[in-house]
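2024-03-11 09:14:02 INFO worker-7 job=invfold-0412 stage=load source=structure_tokens
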């Protein structure tokens, strides 16, 4: 590990200690081998004048919910230093009381809650304090002889503390250990199974002490031939099995979830380790990871449903073993899976949540592999992990994500997504909490969306090979399929039947009806495994009310509608709803060029503006209006409706 300290950048902070604290905190936060997703914390002590003009000692400490990689000044909570130091002298307070008293000692109540380790930072007599969960150090301590190895590696100038539950108990333990200690003789502090503390009155020195301590651990692992996990081949992606697994986990979790698969060489190599059941089921890298990953992954066999059910039973037994009678069990669903020969999978209620679990588990796998090359992976005991998992202060972190959006965890596929109705549907579904595979033949699809909830795929829907690949990528990326919006289409140039050329007719049939049939057929195995699966077919007003000169379009859309009606009849027993939406006069779409719009308006003797609002309500129907109706049809309002044909046209007298 190399120091990233840049004197020129640090100098920009001037004499502002908090700005310097932000700079050095971000250096720590950007290194994943030090902290992950909100892990670790930093602080700085300074003096400020209060409203009475009195000088007070203040500690600015990382606030709850902030990430060191992106932290700003607003992410640090200012707390009266003397109050925190006096709290360390108390014989006992609960962690809930500790949080309350820390909050009462803040000088700015608009800032976030101080870290649960604020008291510990306060009793360390240095201006800057850095705390990380450095992988290399924790890996060594998570071995059968970890205590001795750490002691041998760092010697007497390192304060080495056996694991203590974070919060007041840890602060009290450090306070007791260091009351008669000369801090000048201490290079740093290692909390076994937990992490590393460094400190100094100079921000750069404290930061570089951290780098030095961690580098020493990394070099030790290399010297012990504890090499990093490497593979020689990628595992097979079985998309149908993944969809089945995702459904099983969703049922245990009692909500739709995402399942991201990783068949990289590293993950595949981990899945092929001997004694996988034994080494993967001991616990996470650090105890604070357990609220994200649970204690262990589910190890998959050929029967994924049974594997998940057995995992849930084991979790309930684990809960009953350590529950003191006052706790309510969390859901028993796994958060990640190891599939021998195939790789790993991560489960989450959102892409962000799933990515956090992915990152934590990748570091955990690396640590397990390295520890096994020493004298075995030995993290904390089940009882210690249970205490952390059900610690109220840790559960508060999860409550921030506890209000799900209506379609949270659901997976949609939308064709014709680069513009118009398709694009509006993608945007509206993401607003509702869904993730979306957005397909379009136009290369612009690759730059239409920048949300992590959207998987953009360039695809010609008339090409079966491309459709298969797109669906496969969707399942591998998100885990399944719940909603299909089959929307891709063209509006061919108007010809009378007598003037119709074969190419125009065939192209309309291929894109406007046949491609939808192919897509539907390929998606059905996955929709059958979906959560409340539903299909919305984008038809047209031309079905109930065709116009002259539009036979190629009208006939194709009529065929598509009939396909949807038959699909509703055939798929109802599988619980798959199929409904058809008939838009009219939606002109902000890719199929309506200015040339076509002017031609159609002229055909009826209208101006373009008159043509746009040529309906009973005299309103213009937009792509967003159609997308809003699509979301309603996919949602609970249509839970008992299938085979319906719904117009969205402002009222068309020919249809009525």
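2024-03-11 09:14:09 INFO worker-7 stage=emit residues=656
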């Amino acid at each position: 590990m190399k120091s990233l300290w840049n004197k020129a950048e640090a100098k920009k902070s001037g004499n502002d200690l908090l700005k310097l604290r932000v700079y050095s905190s971000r250096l720590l936060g950007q290194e994943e081998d030090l902290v992950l997703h909100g892990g670790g914390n930093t602080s700085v002590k300074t003096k400020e004048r209060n409203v009475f003009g009195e000088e007070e000692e203040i500690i600015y400490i990382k606030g709850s919910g902030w990430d060191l990689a992106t932290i700003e000044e607003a992410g640090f909570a200012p707390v009266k230093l003397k109050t925190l130091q006096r709290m360390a002298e108390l014989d006992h307070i609960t962690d809930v009381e500790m949080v309350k008293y820390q909050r009462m000692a803040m000088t700015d109540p608009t800032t976030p809650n101080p870290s649960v380790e604020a008291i510990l930072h306060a009793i360390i007599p240095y201006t800057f304090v850095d705390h990380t969960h450095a992988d290399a150090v924790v890996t060594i301590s998570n071995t059968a002889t970890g205590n001795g190895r750490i002691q041998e590696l760092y010697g007497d100038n390192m304060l080495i503390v056996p694991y203590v539950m974070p919060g007041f108990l840890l602060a009290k333990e450090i306070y007791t250990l260091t009351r008669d200690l000369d801090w000048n003789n201490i290079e740093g502090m290692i909390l076994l199974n937990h992490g590393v503390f460094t400190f100094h009155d100079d921000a750069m020195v404290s930061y570089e002490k951290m780098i030095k301590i961690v580098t020493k651990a990394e070099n030790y692992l290399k010297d012990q031939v504890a090499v990093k996990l490497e593979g020689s081949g990628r595992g097979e992606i079985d998309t149908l099995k993944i969809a089945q697994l995702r459904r099983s986990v969703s049922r245990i979790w009692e909500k739709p979830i995402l399942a991201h698969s990783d068949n990289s060489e590293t993950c595949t190599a981990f899945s092929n380790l001997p004694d996988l059941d034994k080494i993967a089921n001991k616990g996470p890298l650090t105890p604070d990871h357990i609220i994200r990953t649970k204690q262990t992954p589910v190890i998959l066999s050929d029967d994924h449903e049974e594997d998940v059910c057995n995992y849930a039973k084991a979790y309930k037994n684990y809960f009953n073993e350590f529950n003191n009678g006052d706790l309510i069990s969390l859901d028993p669903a796994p958060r990640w899976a190891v599939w021998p020969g195939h790789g790993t999978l991560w489960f989450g209620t959102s892409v962000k949540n799933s990515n956090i679990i992915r990152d934590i588990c990748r570091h955990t796998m690396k640590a397990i592999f390295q520890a096994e090359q020493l004298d075995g992976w030995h993290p904390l005991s089940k009882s210690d992990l249970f205490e952390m998992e059900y610690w109220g202060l840790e559960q508060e972190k999860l409550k921030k994500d506890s209000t799900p959006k209506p379609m949270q965890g659901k997976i949609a596929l939308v064709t014709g997504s680069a513009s118009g109705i398709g694009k509006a549907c993608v945007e509206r579904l993401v607003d509702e909490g869904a993730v979306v595979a957005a397909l379009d033949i136009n290369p612009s699809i690759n730059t239409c969306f920048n949300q992590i909830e959207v998987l953009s795929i360039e695809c010609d829907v008339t090409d079966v090979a491309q459709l298969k690949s797109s669906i496969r990528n969707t399942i591998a990326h998100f885990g399944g399929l719940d909603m299909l919006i089959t929307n891709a289409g063209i509006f061919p140039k108007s010809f009378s039947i007598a003037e119709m050329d074969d190419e125009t007719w065939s192209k309309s049939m291929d894109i406007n009806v046949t491609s939808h049939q192919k897509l539907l057929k390929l998606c059905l195995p996955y929709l059958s495994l979906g959560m409340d699966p539903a299909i919305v077919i984008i038809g047209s007003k031309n079905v109930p009310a065709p116009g002259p000169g539009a036979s190629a379009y009208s006939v194709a859309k009529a065929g598509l509608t009939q396909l949807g009606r038959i699909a509703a009849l055939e798929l109802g027993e599988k619980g798959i709803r199929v409904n058809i939406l008939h838009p009219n006069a939606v002109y902000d779409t890719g199929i309506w060029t200015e040339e076509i719009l002017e031609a159609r308006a002229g055909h009826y003797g209208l101006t373009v503006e008159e043509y746009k609002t040529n309906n009973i309500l005299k309103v213009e129907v937009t792509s967003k209006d159609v997308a809003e109706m699509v979301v309603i049809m996919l949602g609970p309002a249509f839970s008992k409706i299938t085979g319906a044909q719904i117009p969205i046209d402002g009222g068309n007298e020919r249809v009525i």
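2024-03-11 09:14:09 INFO worker-7 stage=report msg="The chain has three domains: 7-223, 239-399, 411-648."
2024-03-11 09:14:10 INFO worker-7 job finished
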